[in-house]
Amino acid sequence: MTKQLDLHDIQGNVLKTYARQDFTYARYILFAIKTPAMGRQFVRDLLPLVTTAAPWARPGDDGEKMPKPGATTNIAFSYHGLKRIGLPERSLHSFPEEFSMGMRERGEILGDTGSSAPSYWDAVWNSKDHRVDIWLSINGQTKPALEERYAKIRSILANTNGGVIQLCGHRGENGAENLPFQDAGARRDSKGEPTRKEHFGYVDGISNPFFEGTLTDPSYVTGAGKPTRKSPESPDGWAPLKTGEFILGHRDEAQELPKAPIPRYLSYNGSYLVYRKLHQNVGSFNRYIEEKGKDLPDGSEEVAAKFAGRWRHGAPITSYSTKKEADRFVAEFAAAKKAVAAAANQVARAAAKLEYAKLASKFVGFNYQNDLAGGRCPISAHMRRANPRGALEFGVKGAFETPGALINRRRILRRGLPYGESDESSNDDGNHGIIFMSIGASIERQFEFVQQQWINYGNDFKTANDKDPLVGSHEMVAGKGTGRMIFPAEPGSNKAPYFCSGIPRFVETRGGGYFFLPSLTALRMISEGIVDPS
User: Fold this and answer.
1) CB within 8 A of 273, min separation 6: which ones?
2) pLDDT for 217
3) According to the 3-state scheme, what is the secondary structure of 31-99?
């Protein structure tokens, strides 16, 4: 029987996708610690504001569930920050090498070269005077709630008398270069309602890994757990991943405890956070898909879908290979969702929920076993690279105990929101992109492996050194891209494959770092200076 996690001890952003729970405004703030004692006081004073993973009450709920706050707060530390706040040397030396080195020093591995090199990053990451020690996030249901929480944090900061300083140097709108924070938030439609689209027009955040020990609805395992050998559209086709893939101190897919810093309660229920500010070259993307789409039946939308692995409204292209099929499915899905809300009685609602669940399973519950050649979803598509869903078996039935044996240890929890404004007329300049965050028990085994081996190298997918078409670090020569991708033809179709060449770099890094997300217990230990590895 799976042991229930202590959700009151785990930071909320590890388990909660805030944007899905109506926290559509975000602010990310970076700090430097000048004196260790004031650093500890700052953390101690922030503790009452830190949001845990404990469930929130819904209207009409009874019991011990907490009411949903207007804003959330979470905190993490760089290796340098843990050193500055006074962690013992023995504890510091027990952290993994990639974390102690930091993102900048791992740039060659990550593809942060060329226009993504640190010299192009926001100034806050390039200061000669201060290094980033503390990362802090605020997510708000409303802008006033976010600003109220920010004001509270500023008052706590003032009490350190300069012992902790807020770092400036974030890029903003209209050429601003020295902002004291990075804002982000859901993009909004013409009526001001939040959407789930990022700047290239894709619906984002459709699914995230499902793992043991949470209070998440078990039906969400479909498409989000690890694949089994049963139908991918049924819950039996997926099993929860082991908790230790994402949270330290728990068994992982190797049936081991992940390597963790000492003492035990410093790392237990903690995790690692990767934070990246990614600029999106919207103009280049729109021009490229328009040009390449001229020779395809579904035009630029087909190119966009082949690049991502989903049509821009989210329907998986491996299941719905034409835009007409995909549009019909999405319309049925939307109608089913409305039918649930409009059901007149309990019986009607139950029937509507059942129909909605069937369509939802098609939206997320799929694999590539009937599309191994990539005739529908190219093998190099972004989504297929980031989560191959068992396809790395390459059709060898029963080659491994489970079809996900080669990928289950590479899964990551994705968090983040778009920043800046853009529209169809936007060019590559300006300030628009996505704040990408990943959470996992190992930066090297999860985020770095996926980024290096699957995003920026194609050998595992039998595509040589071709990179991910959307987020790969394509080299630019004389202003022209050198990326390439093949859209294979479906076997037996008598059609020729379609070749995309000259793909430019659509996404460029503008900053980021590696951070440790302690549990609430560990935060108290850090704030009191009582971490003892002996």
Assistant:
1) 13, 76, 135, 437, 438, 439, 514, 515, 516, 517
2) 80
3) EEECCHHHHHHHHHHHHHHCCECCCEECCCCCCCCEECCCEEEEEEECHHHHHHCCCCHHHHCCCCHHH
SS3 5: coil
Confidence band, pLDDT 50/70/90 cuts, at residue 330: very high
- Give the list of residues 6+ apart from residue 242 with CB closer than 8 angstroms, or none: 211, 212, 250, 251, 252, 253, 255
Q: Give yes or no for residue 336 having a pLDDT over 60.
A: yes
Would you list the DSSP string of 451-480? IIIIIS--GGGT-TTPPPTTTS---EETTE
Q: Which of 82, 186, 99, 87 is nearest to 143 (CA)?
A: 186
Q: Which of 4, 82, 8 is nearest to 520 (CA)?
A: 8
Q: How far is CA 200 from each of CA 71, 427, 501, rounded to the nearest angstrom? A: 28, 12, 19
Helix (H) or strand (E) holding 140: strand 134-140
Element (H, E) at 385: helix 382-386
Comparing CA positions, the residue from 221, 245, 218, 216 lying closest to residue 232 is 221
Instruction: With CA atoms as reference, report the closest residue to 456 among 469, 479, 472.
Output: 472
pLDDT value of position 497? 94
Could you tell me the two tokens for 367? 């694999």
- d(CA 55, CA 170) in angstroms, rounded, equals 33
Amino acid identity, position 224? A
**How far apart are alpha carbons 521 and 136 in whole angstroms?**
18
Cα separation, 422 vs 66, whole angstroms? 37
pTM: 0.96
423: confidence class by pLDDT, cuts 50, 70, 90: confident
Residue 377 DSSP symbol: S
At 396, the amino acid letter reads V
Tell me what the pLDDT averaged over the chain comes to: 94
Answer whether residue 62 shows pLDDT above 80: no
Higher pLDDT, 288 or 62: 288
Q: Is the per-residue pLDDT at 218 higher than 80?
A: yes
pLDDT at 64 over 60: no
Residues 6+ apart with CB under 8 A from 42: 31, 33, 134, 156, 157, 159, 160, 163, 164
Say which residue the tokens 């802008």 belong to: 143
CA-CA distance, 115 to 92, in Å (whole number)? 33
Please tell me the number of Cα atoms within 13 Å of 30 on its side-chain side. 29
Question: Contact at 8 Å (CB) between 417 and 183?
Answer: no
Q: Cα(first)–Cα(last) distance of the chain, in Å?
A: 34
> Residue 217 and residue 68: Cα distance in Å, rounded?
18
Express each pLDDT in 148-162 by its tens digit: 999 999 999 999 999
